[in-house]
Task: inverse folding
């Protein structure tokens, strides 16, 4: 079997979120990402793999601040569109595509109203690769909708949005507790 540009899809489905960034001049942009993960617990450090071709990447490099918004399944259409349309082509992309933005408490980058959780973070490191760059962020604040987060996990009712590949999405349908 030959490797294709989609070989990483064997590691899907994965949670998908929307990363929001802000330029020096105050313009806001965002894109959907599923390649993100925790790196350290205390302090909370996480990483996001992002293409340097993205406008979101450029804004992160300018201001070093982001919000990472964990989205519920009910936003599947908006999340897909925000990852499919460039902010270079559609100014005010997030709002135009149906997201409502709210002011964050620590960073100047807004977060998405209705997110299950969001992290306010600052870029602390970057590891460039051929077509993506691993961007490492230190969390400054984490916000969780406690209606959907019990005993330190999201409930099934949260319906976390999962990306399967391309335009295919899913939601967890059956939690199983072992032990």
Result:
């Amino acid at each position: 079997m030959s490797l294709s540009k989609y070989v990483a899809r064997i590691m899907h489905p994965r949670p998908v979120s929307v990363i929001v960034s802000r330029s020096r001049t105050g313009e806001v942009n965002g894109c959907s990402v599923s390649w993100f993960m925790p790196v350290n617990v205390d302090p909370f450090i996480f990483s996001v793999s992002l293409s340097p071709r993205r406008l979101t990447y450029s804004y992160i490099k300018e201001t070093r601040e982001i919000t990472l918004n964990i989205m519920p399944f009910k936003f599947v259409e908006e999340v897909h569109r925000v990852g499919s349309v460039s902010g270079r082509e559609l100014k005010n992309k997030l709002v135009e595509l149906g997201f409502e933005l709210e002011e964050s408490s620590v960073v100047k980058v807004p977060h998405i109203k209705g997110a299950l959780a969001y992290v306010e973070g600052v870029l602390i490191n970057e590891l460039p690769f051929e077509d993506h760059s691993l961007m490492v962020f230190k969390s400054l604040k984490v916000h969780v909708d406690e209606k959907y987060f019990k005993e330190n996990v999201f409930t099934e009712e949260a319906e976390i949005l999962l990306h399967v590949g391309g335009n295919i999405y899913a939601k967890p349908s059956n939690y199983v507790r072992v032990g």
